[in-house]
Amino acid sequence: MTSMDRRGFIRTSSTALGGLWVGHYVRQYPADGAAALAPVQLTAFVRIDPAGSIVVGARGCEIGQGVRTSLPMLVVEELDVPWSMVRVEQLPYALDAAPQPPGVRPRYGSQGAGGSTSIPDGWDDLRQAGAKARWMLREAAARRWSSQASVLKTGDGAVRHPDGRRASYGELAADAANIAPPDVVQLKTPSEFRLLGTRVPTVDARDIVTGRARYGIDATTEGVLIAVIERCPWFEGGISSVDDSATRRVAGVVDVVRISGHAPGEDIRHNLAAGVAVVARDTWSAILGRRALRVEWTRGPWASDSTRALQQRAAAQLQGTGTVVRQDGNFAEAAASGARTIEAQYTVPMLAHAPMEPPGCFVELGPQRARIVASVQSPGDVSRIVAELTGLPRLSIDIELPRSGGGFGRRLRSDYVAEAVKIAQQVRRPVKLIWTREDDLAHDFYRPFGMHGLSAVVDTSGRVTGWRHHVAATPRPRRDPGMREAPAWTGTCDPDAYPAGAVANYESRFSPVEFGMAPGWWRAPLHTFGAFATESFIDEVATATRRDPVALRLDLIGAAREQPYRDHGGPVFHSGRLAHVLQEAARLIAWNSPTPAGRGRGIACHFTFGGYAAHALEVSVVNGSVRIHRCICVADVGQVVNLAGLEAQLSGGTIDGLSTALRLEVTWANGRVQQRNFPDYPLMRLREAPDVEVHVVQSTRAPAGAGEMGIPSALPALTNAIHAATGKRIRTLPIGDQLRTGG
User: Fold this and answer.
1) Can you tell me the distance from the alpha carbon of 388 to that of 369, in angstroms, rounded to the nearest whole number?
2) Distance from the CA of 491 to the CA of which of 133, 178, 271, 515 falls in 20 to 30 A?
3) How far is Cα 286 from Cα 280, in angstroms, rounded to an integer?
4) Which residues on neighbouring strands pair with residue 611, listed in sequence order?
């Protein structure tokens, strides 16, 4: 379908196959001036054959967040067929020529995966795709029966007349293909939904558990060569000399090629590091060949830096004034007149993504076309990078989107695709680039490091009258050509999050801390970075003023209202929805009841990407180890699409947050990453993971994405519960050995 022209598409779909593809439509004007609408294959989401088989296309990047199931559900709901009648097919990334202005446009709409945007982006246009198909089928039946379409009903894959006549979608498909739908079709109301809001199993779950599912790492073709890369271990370093004589003697090794990196201070446009690629007939030969390499590196400007030095620079920056990001009222005057000022400092480390499937890419280059198969989150970025490196038009670059073994923001950067293309250009054969776990941890786009200095002014009654939040962090926009216009504090300051707007004298400040690393987007990026500090400090203020932490939060959230929110997830924040999930979490954990001996309860809440979540935990600490006895997550995401998928995302996000709080950090010494593999970067084990009790608020509001909102409030809820159980306040993550004697 991707190489077929418009006339061929119509002819094939409406005559040869007797089928129907429906997606978006563009208006054409024939030479005689009569306007006509024709279905176009660019965003075709529905295929129906005469036998009644229905195939729905899934357009997004499936990285485990469930969009291969949830996005087709939007189409199917409006198509008005049972889910059991549908088969889902993954759509590739595709572009079409855009006449005004000259360029390209997405064929299927937004296909990236990041920022919990897949469901909000698809809520209207994918439902329209299903509704237009249903409209065309009903109109075809009306014409066949010389009836008014308005009296006809659809359901169960058929159109029915009040007099009892019935025609299946398969019978009507060929006629419907020749009927032009209106630009906008009336959609169902939430009260009419029969599929949305129910629990639907993952469409390829059986393939996953039986090993038939194919991920990016599984891509292959006849004659493909396997490549691994020895990369410079120092950020912005380079290659001084290479001795590959021993490598070339390894059986199976075909070639050794150099990969250029970026110069110190340059934008990171393509790949992250300079390196030497070993290309072989199989993976093991490539790895053995890499071990035999002898490479001398130029170490670059950051070779002597360390995490300890970074911490010292950040602490020094917190003593300065920084840049004002938001200022309401006058914090200094509030501090001078207040009864008491409470202060605390929190530190969050750099983090790696560590998806189960490390980065990698299959690439096949020809003189006129390129084929890319990789687990990605930003196929548009892949398309642009391949075009820049090869000179091929973007319309000549085919990108397949297999299931990914996790992403968490790592695959928003396509450096591994650039590496594979550079290798393929030199060896002139299809290449599959493989990253090991060691490669993955040492060459990531890391979640920024930061220190948070917080101050709260309280009056004699314990009411907060002033609030200051000063962040000293490694700036996220650094070296990213796509963020040149973004403020340096982007992704590290959340100036509109509560208690902003509820405290009369509120101040947010930012100080950049330079460091030799590549910053990236890590799951719930801004929110997982800042919620720990804010929600921990609220508990500290509650302790200092002898107030209940839930009551204090409700005061800081304020009366139910909508207020402006400038970051992603806005443009408004609804305080009442946040208060509701907080109160529900407190109720479910029995917040006001006595706590069993040796245990403590903690709570936290947060607004993330348009959704609202709260966590309440009950824990104990035994011999320095945390035991989680209960873990509750309450979320309001608006209208639910797939309840099973939502519950899985909230549960998985919660466990991800707890795992991060307990042990995860990336550290540097002598300019090099110290973590090598999972023993150094220990994710939470199954035996440690709690049963997460997920509770979803029923709503008919427009939906928010849910892939990331399960994380931010889980971390501070855990550390607040630890304080309640032990009296030990965790101000630096990860927790690590801080709970052990002398830790």
Assistant:
1) 14
2) 271
3) 5
4) 608
Query: Looking at this protein, which amino acid is placed at residue 122?
Result: G
pLDDT digits (tens, 9 = 90+) for 553-607: 999 999 999 999 999 999 999 999 999 999 999 999 999 999 999 999 999 999 9
Pick from 554, 591, 346: nearest CA to 470 = 346
Mapped onto helix, strand or coil, the DSSP state of residue 474 is coil
d(CA 479, CA 567): 21
The rounded distance, in Å, linking the Cα atoms of 405 and 218 is 11
| Whether the Cβ atoms of residue 98 and residue 48 lie closer than 8 Å to each other | no
- Using only C-alpha atoms, the chain has a radius of gyration, in whole angstroms, of 28
Whether residue 213 contacts residue 64, with contact meaning beta carbons closer than 8 Å, is answered with no
Give the separation between CA 552 and CA 674, rounded to whole angstroms: 41
Tokens of 684: 């939470």
Query: What gap in Å lies between CA 330 and CA 336, rounded to an integer?
Result: 10
Distance CA 604, CA 646 (A): 20
Residue among 552, 583, 601 nearest 725 (CA): 601
Q: In terms of DSSP H, where are the helices of 296-398?
A: 307-318, 331-337, 379-390
The DSSP bridge pattern shows strands 54-58 and 86-90 to be parallel
Cα separation of 384 and 481, whole Å?
13
Please tell me the distance from the alpha carbon of residue 85 to that of residue 229, in angstroms, as a whole number: 46
- Answer positive or negative: Cα dihedral of 682, 686, 691, 692: positive
**CA-CA distance, 324 to 308, in Å (whole number)?**
27
Determine which helix (DSSP H) or strand (DSSP E) holds 696, and give its type and residue range: strand 692-696
382: its two tokens: 């892949």
Closest CA to 568 of 531, 533, 611, 605: 611
Phi and psi (nearest 5°) for 268?
-90, 90
pLDDT digit string, tens, across residues 643-671: 999 999 999 999 999 999 999 999 999 99
SS3 103: strand
Q: How confident is residue 266, by pLDDT bands cut at 50, 70 and 90?
A: confident
Q: What are phi and psi of 495, to 5 degrees?
A: -70, -15
**Separation between Cα atoms, residue 310 and residue 208, nearest integer Å:** 42
Q: How far, in Å, CA of 408 to CA of 391, rounded?
A: 30
CB 636 within 8 A of CB 577: yes
Is residue 711 within 8 A of residue 527, CB to CB? The reply is yes
Q: Are 78 and 127 in contact (CB under 8 A)?
A: yes
Distances from the Cα of 356 to the Cα of 146, 215, 460, 690, angstroms: 58, 11, 52, 20
Bridge-based pairing of strands 397-400 and 275-280 is: unpaired
Please check whether residue 1 is in contact with residue 17, taking contact to mean a CB–CB distance below 8 angstroms: no
Per-residue model confidence as pLDDT tens digits over 52-99:
789 999 999 999 999 999 999 999 999 999 999 999 999 999 999 998
Domains in the chain (CATH in brackets) are: 6-209 (3.30.365.10), 216-300+359-434 (3.30.365.10), 320-352+445-726 (3.30.365.10)
Question: What contacts 599, CB < 8 A, 6 or more positions away?
Answer: 618, 619, 620, 629, 725
From start to end of 169-287, where are the E strands? 225-231, 238-243, 253-259, 275-280
Whether the predicted pLDDT of 12 surpasses 80: no
Q: What whole-number distance in Å separates Cα of residue 564 and Cα of residue 416?
A: 38
User: What is the distance between the alpha carbons of residues 416 and 412, in angstroms, rounded to a whole number?
Assistant: 11
Q: Are 504 and 465 in contact (CB under 8 A)?
A: yes
Q: Are 109 and 76 in contact (CB under 8 A)?
A: no
Walk across the sheet containing 505-512 and list its strands.
323-328, 505-512, 464-473, 450-458, 340-348
Query: pLDDT band for position 25 (50/70/90)?
Result: very low
